[in-house]
Amino acid sequence: MKKITIAIDGFSSTGKSTLAKQLAKHLGYIYVDTGAMYRAIALFAMENGYISKDFLDKESLVNSLPSIKLHFQFNADLGFAEMYLNEVNVENEIRTIAVSSFVSKIAEISEVRAKLVEQQQEMGKNKAIVMDGRDIGTVVFPDAELKIFMTASPETRAQRRFDELQAKGDAVTYEEVLANVQERDYIDTHRDDSPLVMAEDAIEIDNSYLTREEQFDAVLELVEEKINT
Question: What's the whole-model pTM score?
Answer without folding.
Answer: 0.84
